[in-house]
Amino acid sequence: MYKSIVIGTGPAGLTAAIYLARANLKPLVIEGIQPGGQLTTTTEVENFPGFTDGIQGPVLMDNMRKQAERFGAEFRSGWVEQVDFSNRPFKIRMEGGDTLEAETIIISTGASAKYLGIPGEQENVGRGVSTCATCDGFFFRGKKIVVVGGGDSAMEEASFLTRFASSVTLVHRREELRASKIMQDRARGNEKVQWALNRTPIAVVTDENGTVKGLQVRNNVTNQEELVEADGVFVAIGHTPNTKFLGDAIRTDEQGYIVVKPGTTETNIPGVFACGDVQDTRYRQAITAAGSGCMAAMDCEKYLEGSMVHDWSETLNK
Ligand code: NAP
């Protein structure tokens, strides 16, 4: 049985693991299908403090993992199917049948990319449709690309993809962009980026050979359908928190983000803590995730030494 099991290995989970391991709690860290989390699909990270010239996302995550290992954190890869929170110790059932037991659990499973849910999308994932510019941009050298979305992710992906593409058309369903001004300005200042605003995506279109040839959209001003020609469609419309495997036991909001006691990482179940994007609807930055990972580990330590008051869980469970 483990004193603490951390589920998820983004900046939140790995920071929690570093703190728990340094506190001699020998945590087990469960790595899912994308060890290192979202930053492993990023290139340059320029806003993580301490790296004057920036650092590559995968390098940053690899460093955090090694740092946790150095202090004795144990790693195990696999998929958590279900967690039984009804008795103590908590029981984590892994895909394949193994069950792990823990006195405390830190949930840091992050959030996954959202899809549009339109015809032609799912069947072409990995064959012209992608949610990860840094993973797949390389395959579209000299080709036309569409990026869907109006937030910071879409601006970032559009700007990044101009390194490879002959042109990038940004398709957004409204006239106004949600993205921050600096990210908008960067994309707008890039002559390879074209704009198809006020367009709602309807379908990913392929030719007779099944090769993606563009995105069918509805022009919301004229109400006419149009084809935005492209060899690749990159969907950058936000993320969904990875909380389905938790069932109903852990309190979440209507979007599925875990609800924590404000200013802490306490969930509605004493001994279960949440950190990083899985509980963050506002900031969702690597540094805020890492900070909340530190908080989760410290909350966990406090709980294990018996000095935590559980008034929050009582309030929340009423
Ligand atoms: P977001 O801010 O939620 O933006 C999602 C965009 O996708 C919105 O423009 C939304 O349109 C559009 N959208 C959502 N569902 C759609 C659908 N079904 N069909 C068409 N369009 C759809 O998500 P994000 O851009 O991933 O950013 C998430 C957070 O991460 C933000 O806080 C952002 O600041 C941060 N972030 C920061 C950086 C950076 O600073 N380097 C980079 C990436 C992300 P509407 O606007 O019409 O709702």
UniProtKB/TrEMBL annotation:
The answer to keyword Transferase applying to this record is no
Q: Which cofactor does it need?
A: FAD
Q: Quick one: a GO cellular component term? A: cytoplasm
Q: What keywords is this UniProt entry annotated with?
A: Disulfide bond, FAD, Flavoprotein, NADP, Oxidoreductase, Redox-active center
**How many cofactors are bound and how?**
Binds 1 FAD per subunit.
Which EC number(s) does UniProt give?
1.8.1.9
Q: Which Pfam families match?
A: Pyr_redox_2
Summarize subunit and interaction data from the UniProt record for this chain: Homodimer.
PANTHER family linked to this entry: THIOREDOXIN REDUCTASE 1-RELATED-RELATED (PTHR48105)
Tell me the protein's name. Thioredoxin reductase
The species this protein belongs to is: Paenibacillus faecis
